Amino acid sequence: MFLATIDWSLWLSPWVLGLFGLCIGSFLNVVIHRLPLMLERQWVHESAAQLTDAAAMARAARLPLAETEKLAKAVDDFGTRIESLPHFGIAAPRSRCPHCGHQLRWHENLPLVGWLRLGGKCAACKAPISKRYPLIELITGLAFATLSWRFGAQPTTLLWCGFVAALIALAMIDLDTQFLPDDITLPLLWAGLVAAAMGWTVPLDKALVGAAAGYLSLWSIYWLYKLVRKREGMGYGDFKLLAAMGAWLGWPMLLPIILLSSAVGAVVGICLILFRGHGREIPIPFGPYLVGGGLVALFVGQPALLGLLGLYLG
Ligand SMILES: [Zn+2]
């Protein structure tokens, strides 16, 4: 078989996988920036399409048809305007400086190296380029190298790389926009279940119970919180994210993940309120903490983590 002839110990060694991670980190930067904008355009366009039915609007809002026809016409023009915009996706258009529109050349786009060579400034207008870009590339590279070291140079390690890459993208998108797109959480959940069914990750029963329990545990906390405090503490994206983590890591990892992410979330939340004057009412996204908890669970491993928690839970 073709797969058997590949020298995995070289191609999936920490160094090679680390370099691969730098490139994936560069791709994640694009996804983190563009996916929310792409989805926003898609949603606005879909909503506009629904508002072109003047008769339906007249019935629903009990308004005279003449009035809703005017509205439908305006919305229709709006929809046409969105359709006439140039294509905006992950692969195209090419990356540009947001300040001067300078199109990045291939060597300026190199992960980590490009940013370092430019000294963190746009080659054309010298506007500073956020440190976040090289940082995400570095984190992804280090994560991939650690996975190779932790799970060995074997094909299933690539699955874990995909899992971690999706988690990094989700954490950053949640931080930026306070939402976790279904376009990432749901495929991640299904991929976790399929990987378990193929015997590549955790046993399938643990993955299935993990996915269901992951969703329901946060869903229950959400409703309890809503009943007691009369406001929402997190969103449905968080439930789907924990369901995906349960599918990948198995149900025994759920409690450690929830405890870790709540503890870190509480500490950071209190610090933000105390030191940064962050209002109590301003929502703090929970996704990044869940991702942090999930990554610790993945890298530390189940026996060590449960032993550690057992120590503290008595
Ligand atoms: Zn520029």
Task: Characterize this entry briefly.
With 314 residues, the chain is an all-alpha fold. It has helices at 8-11, 14-50, 54-61, 65-83, 113-117, 132-151, 156-177, 182-197, 204-229, 236-249, 254-275, 287-300, 302-313. It has a domain at 155-313.
Tag the structure with descriptive keywords.
globular, binds zinc ion, EC 2.1.1.-, hydrolase, membrane, Prepilin_pept_A24_N
Can you describe what's shown?
The chain crosses the membrane at residues 12-32, 157-175, 208-225, 246-275, 287-313. Its EC number is 2.1.1.-, 3.4.23.43. Belongs to the peptidase A24 family. This protein has 314 residues and is mostly helical. It has a domain at 155-313. 70% of the residues lie in helices and 0% in strands. The chain has 13 helices and no strands. Helix 2 packs across helix 6 (132-151), helix 2 crosses helix 7 (156-177) and helix 9 (204-229) packs antiparallel against helix 10 (236-249). The longest helix is centred in the N-terminal third of the chain and has 37 residues, at 14-50. It starts with 7 loop residues before the first helix and ends with a helix. Bound molecules: zinc ion. Zinc ion binds next to loops.
Structural class: mainly alpha
Order of helices and strands: HHHHHHHHHHHHH
Roughly what is the average pLDDT, rounded to an integer? 89
Write down how many β-strands occur, each being a DSSP E stretch of 2 or more residues. Answer: 0
Number of helices: 13
Spatial gap, N to C terminus: 51 Å
Assign an overall shape: globular
Q: Which spans of ≥5 residues are poorly predicted at pLDDT below 50? A: none
Q: Oligomer, anyone?
A: single chain
Question: What ligands does this structure carry?
Answer: zinc ion
Largest sheet: none
Helical residue percent band: 55-70%
Using only CA atoms, what is the Rg? 23 Å
β content, as a range?
Answer: under 5%
Pfam families: A24_N_bact, Peptidase_A24
Domain Prepilin type IV endopeptidase peptidase: 163-270
Function: Plays an essential role in type IV pili and type II pseudopili formation by proteolytically removing the leader sequence from substrate proteins and subsequently monomethylating the alpha-amino group of the newly exposed N-terminal phenylalanine.
Main location: membrane
